[in-house]
Prior knowledge:
The complex is a heterodimer. By secondary structure, chain A is of the alpha+beta class. Helices cover 49% and strands 18% of the residues of chain A. In chain A, a hairpin with a 3-residue loop joins strand 18 and strand 19 (515-520). In chain B, the strands form three sheets. Chain B has a four-stranded mixed beta sheet, with no helix packed on it. A four-stranded mixed beta sheet of chain B has the order 3-2-5-8, with no helix packed on it. A two-stranded antiparallel ribbon of chain B has the order 6-7. The radius of gyration of chain B is 18 Å and the shape is globular. Chains A and B meet through strand 1, helix 3, helix 5, helix 7 and helix 10 of A and helix 1, strand 3, strand 7 and strand 8 of B. Strand 1 (15-18) of chain A pairs antiparallel with strand 8 of chain B, so a sheet runs across the interface.
Amino acid sequence: MKADATAPRGAVMTATVPVQADTCRLSISGMSCAGCVATVENALKNVPGVTEAAVNFAEHTATVRGNVDPKVLVAAVTASGYGAAELRGAEDESEKEAAELAHYRKLLRKFIVAGVVGLPLMLAELLGVMPMLDTPSGRIFWLTMGAVTLWVLIYAGGHFFRGAWKSFLAHNANMDTLIALGTGAAWVYSMLVVLFPDLVPSLARHAYFEAAAIIIALINLGQALEMRARGKTSEAIRRLIGLQPKTARVIRDGQELDIPISEVGLDETLRVRPGEKIPVDGVIIDGHSSVDESMLTGEPMPVEKKTGDEVTGGTFNKSGSFLFQAKHIGADTALARIIEMVRRAQSTKPAIGRLADKISAVFVPTVLIIAVITFLAWFNLGPEPKLSYMLVATMTVLIIACPCALGLATPISIMVGVGKAAEYGILIRNGEALQQAGKLTTIVLDKTGTVTEGRPAVTTLLPVPGWDESKLLSVAASIETGSEHPLAEAIVSAAKARQLETSSASDFQSITGHGVSAAVDGKKVLFGNARLMARHQIGLGELTARAEELAARAQTPMFLAVDGVAAGIVAVADPIKPDSKAAIARLHAIGLKVVMITGDNRATADAVAREVGLDEVMAEVLPGDKADKVTALQQRGEIVGMVGDGINDAPALAQADVGYAIGTGTDVAIESADVTLMRGSLHGVADAIAISRATVRNIKQNLFGAFIYNVLGIPVAAGVLYPFTGLLLNPIIAGAAMAMSSVTVVSNANRLRWFKSGRAQP
Amino acid sequence: MNAWAINLAGIIVMALIVWWFWLSRPQARRVSGAGAIEIIVDNGVYTPARIEVPAGKPVTLRFLRKDPSPCAEKALFDDLGISADLTVGKPLDVIVTPPRPGEYEFTCQMRMYRGTLVAK
């Protein structure tokens, strides 16, 4: 992961906590007596900042008062030997949506009010039916219009003026400053013309009340439209939040009770019936069912679950009824962590957006300076009526400049892109990973579990004369019983399937990248690859040729030697995932070089490579050397994406420009990965890259649009074209352009919502 | 003379813009002791916008959003990797530990709302 931080993030403790009178409730597990209560209470009270801590033994909860991060409280309880999790209710978006709707309506009301005043004035102006300023009735009319426009500015544009003033006091300037100055100047000038016409040259006696009112109307409309478009950008988060059920059916004292999800405690037993959503994360203790996890993993096939299997909150129970024990609640559930991760990622910015940030930071004061220059330029160089030109050009510069479009260009696309990725079961950690993913030239795939199923099975047994298959497998299983290697599991289960007896092994030694050695029934047994045999100078004879034949058929041959003599070959094969070939073809189609890295022998690796169509194979790589291989590729100038399981491949994932952890189901805690793919298919990698590229393209379009808009709009508004074409922009047109610029950026970002995976549907 | 006066006034206004918005800083509110620092999010500004805090110690910033416009809905601390979603009318505590002395900016998504944590 390439952290861009200027500060070490690991050193920064952060938490965002809704304030509830500084109170936090925890669910505590593992308490069995009153002594436990005292231990937990003491652990909580010793946390700095805690003013009060009370444990309720009957409910297995703790209520803590004080100004402390709940994570620190959970850590304190865990350190004292108990389990803890924060009790927090399901997030409710309805309140936020209601507030947004109310604000949207308010903006529309302001648009209508300002439009009703400004539009007739503008039409009358265009038709030339306005009363003259120099007649008594005309002056009364214009004074009335001045008062009405002032009311419009206060009612419909008051928030711009308040914002501008507050910002000014804080030594800050924002969009409000520009709008308030632009429309305020128009109104003040117009009132000057109405009240003291003699101060203004006769040609410049023109009131601009309609411009002030219509600009305010248009900007309110633009903000309303932008708000509406923005609502759609957070659709993905709303969908994820919507997955969480509001209630859970818990079993307490033998009774089934429906309770709010925020009341579910750790280790409590819950019932889920067919057709219901699973409320929190846990382990099935009774019953079985098939569960649809597609909403989280993107995997369309339901997963069979039985006693002992884990279930995830927010997923859908399809067929059976079961009881499960809650293991993760509140903010600890996979769904809550996914939401948190997506939210965080949505707020991060890739390097591409930093330039826009830097410009945004100085944008408004720069526009103010340009406005003053415009004013002076027209004063010194402009034709008569100078004063009108000075006012119109300056006002237009202030109104057309749009810092919002620039500021929104990157974050709004990231928001939609990261949300869209989450819909495909792809969790992108930050905006930087997204930008890097768009630049990748090479994808390195770990073989086991990535290209292949990661569930190897024994396929061939080749005993030497004097040995038989059962004996060969039995000894191999005896030595492998203590090993946790996936190949070992395949051998042990094959022996079990044949109901073979195994002996106990002693002096077990695992030699990384080679194999294992142990004493079985008093004999020294070696089991591993040709390198292990060579290391112990075991003669393999014709077994070497047989092993090569097996390897060429994508099987992994392992030699067994007993007391220094070869006893035979046990070959294991890990089936290639059915869609690996198609996904790799997609990676090729988007111009990437695809490399496979494996600890397997060269021949097996080559056979897999031929089967799925890889460009390069790095075989016989020791686990610790994978990161070095990634570095070597980077030194060749490649920008490398590494796809692995996130645990064994963690160093290589961290070394790569973008690390993809694949097939992790709903376990999202893959710190070493920039991108976590919840589905096992390699199509997820192709999808992740396609979404990343589409998002970066969208950001570039937005940034280009926002830059060009301001770079062209401001000089045109200032009147640079006037000497050549006589063109001077109307401030009302500038207001319309400004109002639409942010809407355009948000709408363009929303196009990402229609992103479709290039995966052929089954 | 009149022309000179107007041009001079224009130049002075430009100089004032540079001085006020770029060169001078508002007074920082100094934080002492425990307790949360309340930051009002309204009218395009964080109040207070400049806060002096001790470096290396956790500080609770209690954001209270009053502005319903979408600009105000996030408070981002880019350098600290923090993002907070603010709901109108609901205070939200952000606990942050500036790792070392320096200035840490916090902004809305569009960088129109701007505040600074000054860690000393």
